[in-house]
Design brief:
This protein is α/β, with parallel strands linked by helices. It folds into two domains: about 240 residues, FAD/NAD(P)-binding domain (3-Layer(bba) Sandwich); about 110 residues, 3-Layer(bba) Sandwich (FAD/NAD(P)-binding domain). It is about 35% helix and about 25% strand. Strands 1, 2, 5, 6, 7, 8 and 21 form a seven-stranded mixed beta sheet that branches. A five-stranded parallel beta sheet has the order 10-17-11-12-13. The chain has a three-stranded antiparallel beta sheet with strand order 14-15-16, with no helix packed on it. α3 runs parallel beside α4. The chain is globular.
């Protein structure tokens, strides 16, 4: 196959970047391993309020439909149940459906593979009844199965808090959220639900049971407690999925506030490989508004390089999008935005690339 733009991943970032590009008449191919587009949005029932201005507040499952339906009349080819597995010598991307492999030659590639959940190891962590918060959400919202009756949430962050409330709304008894830190940031404190207990300076020492989780031992402020539970949901955060960037010979940087190791990129989300862009959680763990906006910034630069947007229009659009990203990420978690800006500055310095004038305006607002 040949296309102007290839997008790896049909989650919210992939779908939004595809819309921005294909609505300008640019031929686009999306590769995704799932049967349906939308990524993890397909099972997220919580409302997303802090979105770019063109989107109304809506549930995740509705947003997935909104993003996918916009592509129906555009020059977009969706390859479901396909996976990127390598790169040919001529730079074409090797794609497989499990039975055959073929190359896709593209002028530009945007990688929007998202992030993976981090687990947490403790004695008994392999017992049935121990799962990530994302797995619990899939069981509830997609499979319509309650994962347990009495649950412990390990880790206090936005995702684990959302899933804890969803479990509670479905009738699961949330015994408490266990958090190893001794304090929480402002954003985490504001998200706390008063009817769900929180234990700071705590961790699970072990889980026990005959063939499944039956009791959990928790160290709280140096004292061990025994809790009766049949479900442990691990919310240990997310980290960007990196394999495609390794294959595409991109450089990496380590930013704890963005999820750890991630590809380096410039102010337009272009990596060290000049034909490859990154967007969404693969560019650093962020809120849904940030996921959508990083995709639009990358798409604007792709359109400029393809000659669809002139330099002035692209700069004007990118400046607006960066201001939106500043507004949304600083309202959700300001540390994410400042870590992103610092990472971009380091990338430009390392590669001797001057920062564009439009980005200096963002730095001044910071």
């Amino acid at each position: 196959m040949e296309t102007d733009v290839l997008i790896i991943g049909a989650g919210p970032a992939g779908l939004n970047s595809a819309y921005e590009i294909a609505s300008n008449g640019v031929q686009t191919v999306i590769v995704d391993e799932s049967f349906f587009p939308g990524g993890q949005l397909k099972q997220q029932t919580q409302y997303f309020n802090n979105l770019p201005r063109q989107f109304e507040a809506q549930r995740g499952i509705t947003l997935a439909e909104t993003l996918a339906n916009r592509l129906h009349s555009l020059p977009v080819t969706m390859l479901h149940k396909h996976t990127m597995i390598g790169v040919y010598k001529d730079g074409s991307i090797g794609v497989s459906n499990g039975e055959s492999t073929f190359p896709i030659k593209a002028k530009k590639v945007i990688v929007t593979t998202g992030a993976a959940e981090e687990t947490c190891l403790f004695p008994g962590w392999t017992l049935p009844g121990v799962m990530t918060v994302g797995a619990a959400q899939i069981l509830m919202n997609r499979e319509r199965v309650l994962p347990g009756k009495n649950a412990i949430i390990l880790g206090c962050n936005s995702f684990s808090q959302e899933v804890a409330q969803q479990l509670k709304d479905c009738g699961v008894n949330i015994l408490g959220i266990i958090e190893k830190n001794t304090s929480l940031g402002r954003e985490s404190r504001e998200r706390l639900h008063s009817d769900i207990p929180l234990l700071l300076n705590s961790y699970i020492t072990r889980a026990m049971g005959r063939g499944e989780v039956e009791k959990v031992f928790i160290n709280h402020n140096g004292s061990e407690q025994e809790w009766r539970a049949d479900l442990i949901c691990i919310g240990n955060g997310l980290s960007p999925i990196l394999e495609p960037f390794e294959i595409l010979d991109c450089s990496f940087t380590n930013k704890e506030k963005l999820g750890g190791l991630l590809p380096g990129y410039d102010s337009n989300f272009k990596t060290e490989n000049s034909s490859v862009y990154v967007a969404g959680n693969a560019a650093g763990i962020t809120c849904m508004g940030g996921v959508l906006l990083t995709a639009e910034i990358a798409a604007a630069d792709v359109l400029r390089h393809l000659g669809v947007l002139n330099r002035e229009d692209a700069a004007r659009q990118t400046t607006y999008l960066w201001k939106e990203l500043l507004r949304i990420e600083t309202q959700t978690d300001s540390e994410v935005f400042y870590a992103r800006v610092a990472s971009i500055q380091e990338f430009h310095e390392k590669n001797n690339i001057p920062l564009p004038t439009s980005f200096h305006a963002i730095l001044e607002e910071c």
